[in-house]
Design goal:
The N and C termini lie far apart (about 40 Å). The protein has six helices and five strands; from the N terminus they run αβαβαβαββαα. α3 packs across α6. By secondary structure, it is α/β, with parallel strands linked by helices. α3 links the parallel β2 and β3.
Length: about 140
């Protein structure tokens, strides 16, 4: 578990964009299956090689559109129970943080893994997120 004072600014970055934080498995199981429309779930992380592009990239994607109907986040390494619950909904995909899960009507649709984010500038990450949301809306 990372010290909360370390992760607080990283959490806040997504909260400021409108993401709802899930802190428990109950939060995930109550909201994700019931979410109608397109949901973007960010597995947040302290990983400097990817997270430094992930959060700004998501912000750019949301500013440019298309926008999902719901924004949710968990913090890998801190929100352990919630992160495990989210990953169970990623249907066989390996654990990856940071990562972005796309859901349609509460059902898993697509994922952008850490390996897709790592080493890319925020603009590329934004384009990936925009494409995934557009595909989910199609």
């Amino acid at each position: 578990m990372y010290p909360e004072e370390l992760v607080a600014p990283m959490r806040q970055e997504l909260v400021d964009l409108g993401f709802r934080e899930w802190k428990s498995a109950q939060d995930v199981e109550k909201e994700l299956p019931a979410a109608q429309g397109v949901s973007l779930v960010v597995v947040n992380s302290v990983c400097g090689c990817s997270a430094a592009s992930a959060r700004p990239g998501v912000g750019m994607a949301l500013n440019l559109g298309p926008k999902p109907d719901h924004l949710y986040t968990v913090f890998a390494g801190n929100d352990v129970e919630a992160t495990e619950a989210v990953r169970e909904h990623f249907l066989g995909e390996p654990p990856s943080s940071p990562s972005f899960g796309i859901f349609v009507d509460g059902k898993f649709h697509d994922i952008i893994h850490r390996r897709d984010i790592q080493g890319r500038p925020p603009e590329d990450v934004a384009a990936m997120v925009q494409g995934a949301i557009a595909a989910a809306r199609a």
